[in-house]
Amino acid sequence: MRSAWRLGLVVLAGSLPVAAGCGERTAACAECGTVVVAATGEPPSLIPPLIYETVGRDISDLIYERLADLAPAGVPSDPSAYRPRLAERWERVDELSWRFHLRPGARWHDGRPVTADDVIFSFDAFSDSTLGAAARSHLAGKLAVTAEDSQTVLIRFREPSAEQLYDATFHVRIMPRHVWADIPRARWEADTALEHLIGSGPFRPRQWERAQYLVLEADTAASPAPAIRRAVWRFVEDPDAALNLVLSHEADVLEAVGAPDRVRRVAADSSLRAIRYPAAAYGFLAFRLADRRGRSHPVLHRRELRQALTHAVDRGRLAGAFLGSGTRVPPGPMSQLLWIWDAEIAVLPFDTAAATRLLAAAGGARAIPPLEILVPATSPTRRSFALAVQEAWRKIGVRSTIASVDFPIFQERLAQGRFDAYIGAYLDEPTPRGLADQWSRSGWDALNYGRYGNPVFDSLLQEAVREADLPRARRRWREAMDTLNADAPAIFLYAPANVAAVQRRLENVTIDPYSWLSGLPAWTIDRSRALARDSLAMSR
Question: For 101, which DSSP code?
Fold first, then answer.
């Protein structure tokens, strides 16, 4: 088997300039400091406002910087939860304004200094409708950015908010004005020039061979300089291919191994570690309460029926069986990471007797036509959940069918409201504000495909978002979740834990679930393990 460093030489030989000391296949290559990442899918762009998927985010977050970083598990409304990044410090000016002081000596990879004008330019780009950044709704028309001097920026919001510091830092990666100002924004999406990907972060792009690999190299001017000198992303089409790269020792790390049987394969390899960490995701079965014209579903508009169908499902058993250790049943629409997770939230428990009583109150099982559960064919896990839910409903007399369709058709049917129920999954951000798009009336044209709407829940959600006092905010969120769960617009099935596969030669590995490779600059290499592996590889 080939070691990861040899993969870099074999696969990239002839096209990739190798690092010093790696021009020959000798044990000295252990000093290369190269890490190979197995990635499912390839980002179409690394230009920050144009990034919509996680692989592009992972790479871009090593090239570009935010003004500040929210600590893992930090509460967005807590100012003490933020760490300096491009800004060395900041202070609140008044209830609407924050002042940021840029890091002294901060420079772009081309040597030019980072200035306040770059920050202003970046916020404007993320707010521009031409680019359509995912964060635009949080920025456009809601704040203004001005320069007090070349190293000081004032961000002023239009309205008071508990999460102003979050909105000033989380969404926007700072880009160099001198690179992008003269390029029309309508042309950014088609721009593939590697020399335009200039940031101020710890790594800089070296080579991008489309559909094959991308190479970042450490910025030697960074302080402290990363121990990992080079990071190589291998792009493959599916999770099986990504896992095989790691198991064949052609890659060093994989973000998420997957199902328990796949985790066991990693654990059986003595050269690998399986690192478990909470995922920023939750899965659910959502009911359609109404169609796009506002007409109620023939039976699922009845709360008693939705409650009965929820009581019938043993969510705890299913979550552990399909997703393994570390998976939890969420007390509402949230991942394990979201700070509003609260064991005191009222949930509908697994209770077949209650399900039978409520089903009778809803007119009995005979009055219910077969319900179709829609799932994407690309997700074996969701299909497994669908089959288990189907069986649980059968036991209380409710018939159902499963429609497994290609993902584009799945998305099309959701948008058109052509389903009775579907099994979906959403990624969290650190703030729970995204629940408005997913479950409130305002989200009917966004992600609330089931068209659930409850004015009481919507009001509680808005109160919770506005509340600056953390204990009071937690109470408001609990009240909102209690209301949502009682309505049973969905069965919240699982909040998984990811398992990353990591070569044992890599040390000091920490994982931030919101950007799993952001800790890469602090990773180190056990040289003795690397030398032993390289010597073994050369002997074969």
Answer: E
